[in-house]
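hey so i finally got around to running both of the ones u sent me last week. sorry it took forever, my laptop kept dying halfway thru and i had to restart like 3 times lol. anyway pasting them below in the order u listed, first the sequence line then the structure token line for each. didnt double check formatting much so if smth looks off just lmk and ill redo it

first one:
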Amino acid sequence: MSLSVSEVRARLIDALNAMPASAEELRELDAALGDGDLGVTVKAGSHAAADAIAKLPPDAALGDVLIATGKAFSTANPSTFGALVGGGLLAAAKTVTGSHAAGRAEALAMGRAVAARIAERGKSQLGDKTVLDALVPSLDTLEAFELGADERTLLDAMIDTAERQVLATAALQSKKGRAAWVQERSIGHADPGATAWLRFLQAWRG
């Protein structure tokens, strides 16, 4: 499994352009737990990020793609989620400086960097009912596969894990952000951030 930067750019643009289709679902989930702005954040951020990637020069490295994506996503509609994702992508860019291709190892390094930055900046951990509850287990699934597995197999397995984890978040009580304010009333609702990660994986698979 290895993609050139041009392939990553094309796939990423396609996935980002597909994300606004989930905006209403994410708005409804977020409205049940917080201020309901996640749908707007994802829609505006995805459009802005896709545009930023398309404007990069042909010789842009993988790190440049991540930096452009992170900056555009975080500034399109200022929000906590946007800032966390943007910061995570900037951290991920440092793991692939100068790279012009991405395989399983690079995907893992980028994903782990995103998760670590989100955990650090959001002061959150697994079980707090955040995007981490789907992101980290799906990365664990990717890491557990033997070398040589094809991309479709890896993605299917990651998506299966993320789907299970999103469902599992419904049983948790939110501990971070505005969602924590509703306390036990947050139980019964899937986490919107975790759902957004699942929808991105599905959009990336196509």
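and the second one:
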Amino acid sequence: MGLLAVAAGCGGSAPLDGRVRIAGSTTLLPMVSAVSAQFAADAPTVELDVRMTGSSDGAVLFCDGLVPLTGSSRPLNERELANCAASGVRFVRLLVARDAVALVAGPDVPATVACLTQEQIYALMGPESATVVTWREASTVIAGSGAELPDTALTVIGPGGASGTRQSLIDLAIAPLAKERGATSTLRADYLAEPAEQLIRSSALSRPGSLAFAGLATVKSWAGGLRLLEVDFGEGCQPPTSAAIDAGAYPLSRELYVYVNLAAVAANPTENAFVDALVSNAGLATAGAVGGVALTEQEGDEVRAQWQSARSTGKGDTA
């Protein structure tokens, strides 16, 4: 699931060889895999090593200088930035797509559960929900939040601790209420954490009263059985559609990035060509093709200009 090794290359005046290494978010795996497939078709002499096991795992490898490229479904945090600085890793962060955290309900959850408020998400999934064993018991955390929810067993499922998707859900939905209530910004301790987002569907299908979450691009690749939920953070129920994400209306939206180690990529023409392929019009368009939200044409132009500037100056986001 996390390792893809194929022969790859890119067209141009001279054949490419060597190796491309990229790690990071499983949310970016569909997009990176699609770009990799085209890269492989262009010239089959380059080994492409893609290790997508989580944003946090990728950040560790990247800031330790072990991989020159990492995908992340969240910005690097202060600790990770400090690690990069300590290792002398100069980088540029490139926006490559938009996505969202998507909530889904299991097959035995009544269809009346179609939209969850921020309070309900917190009461079902947040740090105070350890004793909440049915959907309706959300009211024991926040009064009234479970009144319209079913008296059905609850199982909360999502990606593991290395996942940027997990951190995005905490930052966007849990942390604001946790701060108000004097609680820790985290998910309930007993939630079922899967090592990769692609494994969440089978878990949610087999467990009672599942409330699961994953990146939207991942959820769109699932072949039925689970219901996508809308969310309401005070502006009415919003679906995780491309239009709602582009408009900023879906409150669990987030941006997806690729971080590039400038010195390492400058020394490797093949990895340089891979970044070119990733931020090309065709490369950025793959985000929409695999279930994410592609950047606009203007945004794509801006990302390519940012990449060209960072490559020519060697400065990027860090001096």
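quick thing i noticed on the 2nd:
The chain is about 35% helix and 20% strand.
anyway thats it, ttyl
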